[in-house]
Each structure stands twice: as structure tokens, then as C-alpha cells.
Amino acid sequence: MLATPARSFPPRCRRIQAYKYNKPRSVRARAASSMAAAAETKGGVIGAGEVENGGGGGGGGGGGGEVSLREWQGWGTSSPVPAMVTEVIRELRALELETDSSMRFGGLGGKLQGEFKVQEDKKHRKVYDSLTDSERKLQFFAARQIACRLLGSRGYLCQKCWLPKEDCMCSRIVPCSLWDGIRFWLYMHPKDFLRQNNTGKLLWQIFGTQAATLCLFGITEHEEIMWHAFSHAGKGMVWLLYPNKNLFPKSVQDIVIDGVFRKTGGQDMDLGDEPLNFVLIDGTWSNSAAMYKRLKERWKLTWGDEDLPCISLSTLGASVMHKLRPQPSWDRTCTAAAAAGLLSELHLRPQLSTLRLDKQAEAVEQALDFLLDSLTSRRLRMGRSITRRERHKNCV
């Protein structure tokens, strides 16, 4: 969330903010009732507070039954529907019948709301506490996060750009082919899944899901697909883009490019059987430490080596998304900007200079600008809506 100190607001804006966050209980209740009625009338869901936080959910019911393969893959993945996600959704539906209440979503991150939330919270905590294995706990946590975000986003978010349908930016995205010698893996935390201000989604919007593949942290099916690809490619073909200040990462110049090519006779070179695999950790900095640890443990299990190859970019500055989603001062970037920076630096390698990697980087940067425009416009529109409510209150 982009937090602004109260003292930086003009007096009129401070009154608006105070009204927004300190409304009398009766006012909040009337607002919630109006939102629920509007959601039922529209047959969809309405977002509540998700713009500043990039939450995926709205203020309505989950709608429909289980998540189909078509719906699941429509959100940006080519994998089967994870078994545990399906199981969690079935449990949620069963709880609706047991409690004779309906799921409703809203607030930060599209969380469950109302009395159903109270009952579900008791049940899921009981299940979580009953799990003695840490791996099963992680899988259950990830599946529940994803299941709720899927149900809460139905009818509200565009499946491709993860923005509210009225703010869909898909028509502005220009698809671009990524060089076959590169494959991106978006290793995403479940809390970043379906976030409106997530930038990793732009990579598969531009390059496609085979060139930029989503891998959700804690989802067994996704992680097995990723590690199978790594094992097949070989240890020297996998790199992690993780500019951790506590590590001593390598640079793009350390990447062995020759392994991507094979000789075809004479001086000509052709693309080899396996691409270079680049892992992009897509999550908040507080979550990325756990994600890095999990990658490192699997790396050691696979290759018996604790030295997970990390690279840092020398030319990367603050991305445009830093305005909406600040990062630590020592690395003020985002996932898509990091991918664009990597492509730009690879373009400087003599062997790759003719592959138009710079143009592919520009396509990502352009999409970032479009996303920033969409999120900023939505914020301004919501701000004007708050102002109108405050003016009406003063008139009354």
C-alpha cells in the first residue's frame, strides 16, 4: 500500500480521509448493505479497497461451482487445476451448506467477509493446526489463498490483466515473441496472485505462457513442472534473478551463452535443445526470503550444491511502478522491470546483439507504462468518488 502521512494532506483532504476511515458504525453498515445489493443486481462483484493494495477480490459472492480447467488456465497458467485448490473450494462450498450462509468477498486482497468468514476462519485454523508436517501446512496455506482469490475475482477482474473489467488494459498490450533461447519462470507468492498491481503477469501477456511461465509458491503441481524443466535443461542453464544485498550475486557477463547454441557445421550456430531458464521471484520482500530459501533447498536436493546461481543487474534503476508500490531504497524495481533490464543487458552481449532483445525489453517497459496509467486512473476515480460522498455529507 502506498501510505501518505496525514500531515501531507490539505485540510479538506484530511477531512475526507478522516471520514473515510472513521465513519460511524451506522454509516459503514449502510455502505456495506448498498454494496451487497449492487453486487447482486449486477450479477458480479465489486471491489472494496483493492486498488491501493492490488487485491484481487470484490464485495460479492464467489458464484458458480468448482474451478474448471478453462477458467484456471484463463488466469495465466498452462497447468492442470491444483488438486488442493479444488479440495479447498469443495470445503468452502460444503461449509456454505452447513452454515446456511453464502461466501462474500471484499476488503484488502478480496478476503472473505461477514459471518461466513467467522465460521470458515475457525474451520481452516482447526485444519491447519491438525497438520503436523510443515510442507502440508504450506500447501494448505497456498491453496486456501488461491482458492479464495479465484472465487472472489469471478465476474470482477479481467482474467488476462487482473484489473477490474472496467479498467481492462488488454487492448493496449502488444504481443511480442521472446527469443527461444530464454524462458522466464514467475515464481509467485500466493498473496501476489491476482493482485491488480502485480507486474509479473505482464510477461505472459506479452510473451505467452510457454515463454513466461507462472509457478505458484507452495503449489506442488506448479513447482514440479518448474523443477522438471530445470533438471532436463541442466544445472548451467538455470539462473535466479534475485538482487539480495546479503548475497554476492554474479552479473549477466557471467552467464555462459555458448551453452544455448550448438554448432551446425562451419562457423554457423543454431539454437540448442534447451533455453536459458531465468527465475524471477514475484512477491513482497518480506515473502521473498522464504521463497528463496525454498528454491535453495530444492537446488541442493537436485544438484547437491548450496550455491544457487544468482545474478544482479548493473543498469537497473527505479521502475515506474515504484511510484505505486515502493520497494526498499537499495532496489526500487518490480518483476517486469527486472525482466526488461535483464533483456537489455543480454542484448549487449556480442553473441546476442542481433536477436532484438532490446525491442522485447521495450515491449515490457511499454506495458508497465500502460499498467501504471490504468492503476493511476482508477485511484483518481475512486478519490473523486470519496470527494463526492463527502460533499453530499456536508450538504445534508
UniProtKB/TrEMBL annotation:
GO BP annotations, alphabetical order: tRNA processing
Single GO MF annotation: tRNA-uridine aminocarboxypropyltransferase activity
Swiss-Prot/TrEMBL keywords: S-adenosyl-L-methionine, Transferase, tRNA processing
Top-level division of the source organism's lineage: Eukaryota
UniProt domain DTW: residue ranges: 154-384
Catalytic reaction annotation: a uridine in tRNA + S-adenosyl-L-methionine = a 3-[(3S)-3-amino-3-carboxypropyl]uridine in tRNA + S-methyl-5'-thioadenosine + H(+)
Entry EC number(s): 2.5.1.25
Record bears the keyword Nucleotide-binding: no
Name of the top EC class for this enzyme: transferase
PANTHER family: TRNA-URIDINE AMINOCARBOXYPROPYLTRANSFERASE (PTHR21392:SF4), TRNA-URIDINE AMINOCARBOXYPROPYLTRANSFERASE 2 (PTHR21392)
Protein name listed in UniProt: tRNA-uridine aminocarboxypropyltransferase
Organism: Ananas comosus (Pineapple)
